[in-house]
## 1
Amino acid sequence: MVLVWGIQFLPGLDGLSGSWRSEAEEVYGIELGSAVSPQPWLSLDHGGWVMLGLLWLMFAAEVTPTAEQRHGLLRWFGVGAILFSVLVLLVHYLGLEVPGWQSPKKLGPFESRNLLSSFLSLALLILMALFTYDMRKRFRLAMLWLGGGAVVFYLLVLNFSRSGLVLIFLGGLIWVGLNFKSGVGMTRLTKILLALMVMASAFLLFGGETLERFNTLWRGSEDSASLIQVGRGVIQKDTLKMIQDQPWLGVGLGNFDAVFPQYREALKTESFIVHPESDWLWVWAEMGVFGLAAFVLVAVAWWREVWPLSHGTDKHFRSACAVAVMMGVIHGFVDVPWHRLGNGLADCCFCVAGD
């Protein structure tokens, strides 16, 4: 992976670039260097972050926590998620201005509501695991997870994003499925299903504008029709054309937004597009097929380390963490949670799924 990143800004490889290079030079008169990437200094800068991420994964793979350490880490994560949600709600309802917070609705530091919802859905899954585990022996602590989970779920609905709700319900059902025929008690699984049913009922009763967004999809209204012109699908369609033109090494880390405008055909809006609405397409577009293959191999190696989730290996929490990572990977096909530091750190915490 580091080799793929390094090649992108080496001089003398401009022959591997796509048609965007000749168009930039001949039509727009832009003088470019001889690197594969149009802005190799950006590739160098972004490559440093990739290397930091790899070092973190290597560290997490070597230092697998014990069950007791895992429980402690997840409890601290649960407390942090609750306090974060409370802070976001206070800022929102008090109308405060926080430097660096880019949400248009003053709901957290993320510029996209889907990224906040991704974090909240994964946090809610862990809070459910903590609640059902502590219910028998740590009742007061379990009530903290229950109350905190209600706050997180409220913020999730308030955030006006469909993706997070789909993730928590889908992830919860997959989690139950993984534990259904294991040593995890049926009482605990019943509590998980009951929690999902309560959240679904609350959403159907009090979902407000967020529920209406789901209804818009079912009715096929003008809003959903407009998404065909400006939504994820057309951005990804144009991105695939861009990838097809330079598939092997990509356009270089950090260079998607500079090259993408020359491949815009299906997208009708004039909005500036900074990413392809997909983690996987973003990696492929900027690092090429070899970079994409490297990330796939990392994902496969991680899954082989985690599986099988056998009884007696703290399966209750390990399976919840594994599902949280799976949901992040699935969400990465239609959004970019792994490219954002806040979501990336949350997902990296779930390396504790290892045995």
## 2
Amino acid sequence: MSVGVTNSSDGDIANQIGGGDAWLLYTDTFGNIIASQEIGGSLGDAAISFDTTIDSGLIIGATSASNDLGVSGNHGMTDYWITKLDSMGNIQWQKCFGGSQIEELVAIKQFRDSSFIIVGNTDSNDGDVVGQHSCAGCYTDIWVLRLNWNGNIIWQKCLGSGFMEFASPGGLAITNQNELLILGAAVIDGGDVSGSHGGFDFWILKLDSTGNIVNQKCFGGSHDESAITVKYNNEDEIYLIGSSTIPDGDVTINHGGLMFGF
């Protein structure tokens, strides 16, 4: 299973809906196409992340600018767009979450109690978004949502400093203690951020299951670091993967240009 976005109306794309559709591609282990499915509205819709669900269905996390056809409830500009499919690919429900500005989804996972955790970015401070650390349309916060099985908000949380923070593409993991690991980037201290080193740092947060911050920490040097993904293993070890440019602060070796490591 792969998800993404398509602007095509030929080849493997059978049912184009709008200018950019969320594309779900089902293949066997040899890469042969089993099924292809496009969902969305008349504007831009991009599937970003998915997870399998306890009923053998799928939960699809997308970013959408549409508010027609297969998308309803958009709050303005782009929203998180969440679609629940059954095991046959039929849409059970779809909902938009966000405010009047821009929301960009980066990751979705099913929690152990069958609820859903969604991570991305927002520069709204209205609609579903409460507690943004900057003014609406100014700077970006990381925005975390927890939804119940039917797609209703259990809680939402903005994480930031009042300047610019954003979630990494693989910036969500769940621990054995049902805590959430959120990985992103932060620049300055303030609000939820402390311990920054200069430039963009790796910014890792641990939240409890109700969205409260357990702890947070910045990792980096005096220049920019770019966090990509967080991984958690059963030994309670956390791995952060990304890139760095300058060997100072927490960065001990650099081979020139960008360095990838833990």
